[in-house]
Each structure stands twice: as C-alpha cells, then as structure tokens.
C-alpha cells in the first residue's frame, strides 16, 4: 500500500487547454498591431478605422473627363494670356484705302451725284453742267459720313442732323462749313485720278478754294 509519498500529483494546469493558454499572450499584454477605440487623426490607422478609403478615388471615365476638361481650361487661359502678351509688343497697323486711285472716264458720269465709291473710297462724284468734282464724304461737324438723300436732293448727316446741298455746301444743322473736295486730274489713259490726301476747303467766313486748279475738271 503506497503511502502519500508515492502518489504523483499532477498540476491542474497540465493538459491540452493549458497548452493553448501558454501559447496565447498574457491578459496584461497588448497586441501592438491592434487599436482600442478610434485611432488619432493623422495616423495610418485613422482612415480605415473611420470607414474612409485610405487611397484616392478609383480611375473612371467620368474622372478622366473632368481632368481633361480642367487641363483644357487651364491651357486655354494660359494661351490667351500668352497671345495678349505677344500682341502688346507687336506694332499696330491700321489698314486704310489708298489715297490715290482711278474712278473711270468723265463720260461714265451723268449729271448729279454718284455714290458708287462711297464705301470703298469715301467719296462722291458730282457732275454739274460745267464741271466734275469729288466730294470727300466727311461731315465738317464731327467727321461722320452723311447719307445722300436723292429724293430730297441733299446730303444728311445721321449723327447730328447737318444738311448739305447737292454740291456739299452746308445749309442746316451744326456743320460749320461745306464738305471738302478732293484733288482730281486726268491720267494719260483718259481716266479721272482722285487724290484724297489733297483736299480743298471753304473755311467759314473765308475765301472758297473750290475754284482752285485741281479741285475740279472742266467738261
């Protein structure tokens, strides 16, 4: 009969369960890879813990279209500024009609006012029984271009109402003097040559230059 000394007492912790317990960390230990509560903002764990994707939006046709639209707008804006910058340093040229030109033969004109060159050269060709002259189509008030009113046999400025007779002499409105006349001559081929850089005037209260050589052609 064995005595108390011969009995082997097994610790209660021995067995399969206690082996698993040994493999697991102690209750007081913390897993460094796990967080308790909500991680601080700015940490690598904050976005996943808050249910927010940790990367940007996935590529899609809509996103690509927005990017292209933004880049096109930026490119157009910079291009416009670049062109404006270059334009600032380029010379600004005004293209004006020539001041010397031919208007055909004297026989091409009947008595009265001919307006066919008004748009191109800003002149009217006027033929009377004894001469042909060219009126420069510019109101002497503020420089507007009057209209020929054939039914009323007069020129009328649409700006401030100045009126001129069929020979360009003012008779109503604020115009201070008659309209100017351009230099006319005959070319070797017989055509009328007009030079609008040389004008003949009739200043208010002074002698008229409408009879000076070059201000008309006798017929």
Number of H- or I-type helical stretches: 4
Low-confidence stretches: 1-6
CATH topology of the domain at 100-218: Rieske Iron-sulfur Protein
Residue-averaged pLDDT: 81
Strand content: 15-25%
Distance between the amino and carboxyl termini: 169 Å
Number of strands: 11
Explain how this protein is built.
The protein is elongated. The termini are far apart. It is of the alpha+beta class and 219 residues long. Strand 3 and strand 4 form a beta hairpin. The chain has a domain of 119 residues: Rieske [2Fe-2S] iron-sulphur domain (Rieske Iron-sulfur Protein, 3-layer Sandwich). The protein is built from 4 helices and 11 strands; from the N terminus they run αααββαβββββββββ. Strands 1, 2, 3, 4, 9, 10 and 11 form a 7-stranded antiparallel sheet that branches. It has a 4-stranded antiparallel sheet with strand order 5-6-7-8, with no helix packed on it.
List key phrases describing it.
disordered N terminus, alpha+beta, Rieske Iron-sulfur Protein, seven-stranded antiparallel sheet, four-stranded antiparallel sheet, 11 strands
What's the short version?
The protein is built from four helices and eleven strands; from the N terminus they run αααββαβββββββββ. By secondary structure, the chain is an alpha+beta fold.
Question: Layout of helices and strands, plus pairs?
Answer:
Elements: H1 16-23, H2 46-49, H3 61-89, E1 100-102, E2 112-114, H4 118-121, E3 123-127, E4 131-136, E5 147-149, E6 154-156, E7 163-165, E8 170-172, E9 181-186, E10 192-200, E11 217-218
Antiparallel strand pairs: 1-10, 2-3, 3-4, 4-9, 4-11, 5-6, 6-7, 7-8, 9-10
């Amino acid at each position: 009969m064995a005595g108390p000394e011969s009995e082997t007492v097994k610790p209660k912790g021995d067995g399969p369960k206690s082996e698993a317990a040994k493999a697991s960390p102690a209750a007081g230990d913390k897993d460094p890879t796990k967080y308790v509560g909500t991680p601080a903002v700015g940490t690598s764990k904050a976005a996943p813990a808050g249910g927010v994707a940790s990367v940007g939006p996935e590529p899609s046709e809509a996103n690509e279209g927005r990017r292209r639209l933004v880049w096109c707008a930026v490119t157009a804006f910079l291009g416009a500024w670049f062109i404006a910058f270059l334009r600032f340093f380029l010379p600004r040229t005004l293209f004006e009609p020539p001041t010397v030109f031919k208007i055909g033969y004297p026989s091409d004109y009947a008595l009265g006012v001919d307006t066919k060159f008004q748009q191109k050269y800003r002149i009217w060709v006027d033929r009377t029984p004894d001469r042909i002259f060219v009126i420069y189509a510019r109101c002497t008030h503020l420089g507007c271009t009057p209209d020929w009113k054939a039914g009323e046999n007069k020129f009328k400025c649409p700006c401030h109402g100045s009126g001129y007779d069929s020979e360009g002499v003012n008779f109503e409105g604020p115009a201070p003097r008659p309209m100017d006349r351009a230099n006319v001559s005959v070319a070797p081929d017989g055509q009328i040559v007009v030079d609008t850089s040389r004008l003949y005037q009739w200043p208010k209260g002074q002698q008229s230059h409408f009879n000076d050589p070059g201000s008309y052609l006798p017929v």
